[in-house]
Amino acid sequence: MTTWKDFADLKATQRLTELAQQPYNLARPDSLPPERIAACRASACGFDLLYATQRVDDRVLVALQELADEAGLVAQHKAMKSGAVMNRIIGHASEERQVLHTACRDVFSDTPLAPEATAQAKEQLARLKQFLAEVDSGAVCNGQGQSFTTMLQVGIGGSDLGPRALYLALERYRLPGRSARFIANVDPDDAAAVLSGLDLSRTLINVVSKSGSTLETRTNEELVRTALVNAGLNPARHLVAVTGAGSPMDDPDKYRASFHMYDYIGGRYSATSMVGGVTLGFTLGYDQFVEVLRGAHEMDKAAEQPALRDNLPLLMAMLGIWNRNFLGYNTVAVLPYSQALLRFPAHLQQCDMESNGKQVSRCGSPVTWKTGPIVWGEPGTNGQHAFYQLLHQGTEIVPAEFIGFRCSQHGRDITVSGTTSQQKLVANMLAQSLAMAQGRSHDNPNKHFAGNRPSSVLIAEQLTPYAMGALLALYENRIAFQGFCWNINSFDQEGVQLGKVLADRLLAALSGEKALSADAPESSLLKAAGMAG
Amino acid sequence: MTTWKDFADLKATQRLTELAQQPYNLARPDSLPPERIAACRASACGFDLLYATQRVDDRVLVALQELADEAGLVAQHKAMKSGAVMNRIIGHASEERQVLHTACRDVFSDTPLAPEATAQAKEQLARLKQFLAEVDSGAVCNGQGQSFTTMLQVGIGGSDLGPRALYLALERYRLPGRSARFIANVDPDDAAAVLSGLDLSRTLINVVSKSGSTLETRTNEELVRTALVNAGLNPARHLVAVTGAGSPMDDPDKYRASFHMYDYIGGRYSATSMVGGVTLGFTLGYDQFVEVLRGAHEMDKAAEQPALRDNLPLLMAMLGIWNRNFLGYNTVAVLPYSQALLRFPAHLQQCDMESNGKQVSRCGSPVTWKTGPIVWGEPGTNGQHAFYQLLHQGTEIVPAEFIGFRCSQHGRDITVSGTTSQQKLVANMLAQSLAMAQGRSHDNPNKHFAGNRPSSVLIAEQLTPYAMGALLALYENRIAFQGFCWNINSFDQEGVQLGKVLADRLLAALSGEKALSADAPESSLLKAAGMAG
């Protein structure tokens, strides 16, 4: 097994620190000759990454390769996929788990890297296929014998963001008459608004919680069950579950079908497990869900290549490390030029920030280097009319990751002023990347652009189920590579515990179950917020 | 007129720099006694701001007051509302405009601060009232004499984000049978997806563009007109416009009704003008839109108070300046514990980052101090299950602004484990604020929370039209105060121009109108992206 080395102990960091004193100057005239743009291009699974507009030269790329090699990133990734216990902190109580979301999609060969987990994935896929066939045939139907048209997914965090982002991205491929809705927030207005627009009698409710005890999901499940009963419907006929084997929700009496996920799949990495599979399969059809898996699996394979130029996830990871640790930028904007990817940045916020927003190394020491950045973003061209002012002229530099497609999904387009909307979309994306890099001198200081604001462009032919799977896995693997490089555990989330403990204390006071001491900050806060008594 | 002073020249900055060496330690035991929590509370228009969990003490608050006074912030704000030319850069070509979005809501007294602009606002309100009465009576109807049920707003940036955020926030108050949809992105899939779910025959299309020439909006208007014609409908019967007087869209032959906005209203500050008014009035009713204006106006009045403790927008502005310029934090998370505020952070991204993401002072010199932060956020409790790990344990500190309400909008709630969902929502919000502030010591370094992560809680009774108006104006005024303090022009957006120029160049090449030189980066990028030829 690869030794886990602290980031600060990697020799290549010294070289990179030196190189960062004079990063490639994108704002110099002729800094983007044709040969640079052609050379700074890497591809996998139909995606091309254009990175000429990053502040890197060959020396930096060589040093980043050295850093990746020294840290054994590709070997660690392979170990992860093969079932090594990567979710741990040495010398301290920790989750001590395998990390095998990749096994959910390693279902296309007879020699998967983690045979047991893949066998479990295949078993769940077979159950899903069977269930969906029964939905299609009408064997699974409502009390009046009618087919189900809508799936309402009730979950939060990883049981919501990934599946929702993928569903919205792929809505275009829905089966006729099928659709999905989602409830996540404990805010009662969320559930009320969604339920008010639904025909519950034709709705299957898919409750998703790995632990089977997530407060928000339990509460929303109760709310939905009450709504069903009030509508004269039998909850047992309308609810299905995705949960861990043996969880409080793993109860066939309460759900007409149950699908399992396993403790080696983290919530934020679970979109390609049954957590995403049931709703995507119901709405898009089983075969399209398999296409998502195929794209993800092929990107997982691409992550096995040792050379940066051949390994898109690793290349993106190392460019991110360069921007984060050596150029010192603490945020990343993910800017899809595709309205269908509206919620993909929100999914990445979870996947990246919950994975790599860490302070302790896997060896149990506080880190002395920067870990995960703040990830945010909105679709372009909308963003151009919103926050791009700051990207171009603010006092903070924000590395940007543009994502685009050469063809639209719907194919319903219009030519205005000689170009289609899709051409306008892609042209705007490329123009932004160029404007951030090169800047523009101007006598009027308010019209001056300093340039040297780094970005990459990721482009593919069309946002299909396969492409979505590949894009998802590209980011998942980028995140894992960065976590390995920073020597942090990207697979736990201890940072969310304290808030839960304090919330429970406040709720115990509100329910009258347990009084708070009068000088506790909790008491004073409840009072100041007008929530006491 | 107040002299505009550079931020670095304000004497209080020295004192604040000293104080920032030892900011208030929130993680010390007993750092949050009842008297601090009770004292650190300010109110306006039904909102309470709890700021005991900011790293401030009385000395800091006194120095922030001095800073505000020295920079003449309240006087500048009053000058803005009274029609001073605040949108300018001294000594350089600039927009040279008044900034009078506040006049749109200064419609409740006979002595408004900017009488001419308010008279124009009242004229537009009267036209809107008349138009909506005709919609209600059926005088405005479709070709078959049927009433209109849906308004489709076509706009982008300020003509989309604010109106959309407010509509989603207030959907609960819709008139029976009325709803709104929005198209913004030039992505043809955005329009296709929205149009496919609409009954166009019952839809009024509200095209919003101040200039009347925004590329995305023109393109989407063409696309919608084509869809109407293809459906056998007469566009002139279905389209209304909100635009600047005299713009290319100000054409009664093409729109069945037109409403005006004026050059003294910036797009990102236009939600309380007709840009938001037409769609909000159509869906919620005229009187509810007036309630939005009333809330905004009352918050504008609160911004006239000289003392921080009496002026909520100024207090929030100065706490932000403390975090940004003295504690050095470059992002702000806006975290509404209300699903209805789902898109409010996206609106604020525009309003804040486009206003204050600036590099040049109003005196025409490059700034030597930090200006606007990166604003981002998602609703809680969803965010707790996503990116809060980084907020609590990441290597970056992110000041947070929580927003919550004591009562839900729908009032459809459920009690689980002794508390309602709304109680759970608010308890979680308060708990997060406390957890970030206090942290928790633990022997296991991975379960240790360092604390001292600053936040505020903004809480009101319920998210009503009045409260939404007040909240909107609270942030608009906070942003303006910060811009005044940084001595930047918060009302132009020169930073978006370069991207437009480059996009036009790429589009001219794609349409064949004008070839690019073969070594131009634009050519190579198109080729590398697979878009050439």
UniProtKB/TrEMBL annotation, chains A, B:
BP GO terms, sorted: gluconeogenesis; glucose 6-phosphate metabolic process; glycolytic process
InterPro entries: G6P_Isomerase, G6P_Isomerase_C, Phosphoglucose_isomerase_CS, SIS_dom_sf, SIS_PGI_1, SIS_PGI_2
Enzyme class per UniProt: isomerase
Keywords: Cytoplasm, Gluconeogenesis, Glycolysis, Isomerase
GO cellular component: cytosol
Annotated signal peptide: none
Xref: Pfam families: PGI
Catalytic activity: alpha-D-glucose 6-phosphate = beta-D-fructose 6-phosphate
Pathway in which the depicted protein is active: Carbohydrate degradation; glycolysis; D-glyceraldehyde 3-phosphate and glycerone phosphate from D-glucose: step 2/4; Carbohydrate biosynthesis; gluconeogenesis
Subcellular location: Cytoplasm
Superkingdom field: Bacteria
Active-site residues per Swiss-Prot or TrEMBL entry: E354 (proton donor), H385, K500
Predominant cellular place of this UniProt entry's protein: cytoplasm
EC number: 5.3.1.9
Any one GO molecular-function label of the UniProt entry: monosaccharide binding
PANTHER family per record: GLUCOSE-6-PHOSPHATE ISOMERASE (PTHR11469)
Family (UniProt): Belongs to the GPI family.
Functional description taken from the UniProt entry: Catalyzes the reversible isomerization of glucose-6-phosphate to fructose-6-phosphate.
Descriptive protein name: Glucose-6-phosphate isomerase
Organism annotation: Candidatus Electronema aureum
Highest classification ranks of the organism: Bacteria, Pseudomonadati, Thermodesulfobacteriota, Desulfobulbia, Desulfobulbales
Gene behind the chain: pgi
